[in-house]
Design goal:
33% of the residues lie in helices and 30% in strands.
Length: 302
Amino acid sequence: MKALEINDLHKIYRSGFKALNGVFLDVQEGDFFGLLGPNGAGKTTTIGIITSLITKSRGQVEVFGIDIDRDFPAAKKLIGVVPQEYNFSIFEKVLDIVTQQAGYYGLSRDVARKNAEKYLRKLGLWDKRYTAARELSGGMKRRLMIARGLVHEPRLLILDEPTAGVDVELRRGMWDFLLELSRQGRTIILTTHYLEEAEQLCDRIAIINHGKIIENTGKKDLLRQLDRETFVLECANSVDHVESVDGIEFKKLDETTLEVTKTKACSINSIFSYLESKDIVIESMRNKTNRLEELFMELVER
């Protein structure tokens, strides 16, 4: 079943700015779906229309087969949203923030309390349940937003930059939690500027630019489109200038470090073989940039 179906979605603001220019998008139930794009590409506008915060100019949106124009209250119960900006009262206690959200969806007090405890425990916030939100760290506030978005057990969870400003260790912990939700069958839509995050988490990825979807495919298929890949090589000995050869470009970064860019047709072994012929010994190798980031830049610059 399709968790989300968007057909020919347009948004034109009074100023004449076209935020969306015919968006078509399907998200299957159970997908961990990444929606990527530069600032101003249309990600936030799309999410705003799905959640009724923004009025569309034309087009159709269905959530699990429910047209949001015909029965938004029914569709709303199926959606959990974690916005990028904090939108709770910092003076309220953590438990109250989550249980009050459950009340908006008609959950009884007992069920609200049970669900709140479930997600606050999973997200490491149960010990802070009686703490005012203003006393939480930035990472804890992010986790509180996720707990609040999940308290009514939505079938579709929309995350808008959920780990922005979160340190690396905490971000990894949140990844584990989101992957667990996905394995349990929850449909998740993620927008993020951490492209490594999308590569680690998402099964399918769509890229939006200038209000249009320019790619929508499986992550593996998308990454196969990379024509070039760049590595940084740490060498055991000093390196003089290395001439580039067909499909392989070399750039000297310092006395013992080389940057190597190869085409998809060239194997990594061919790099090692060539450098070995020049008596250059490689100690370590790493990707210069995230593969998805390279592809993203290629696509948006077309």
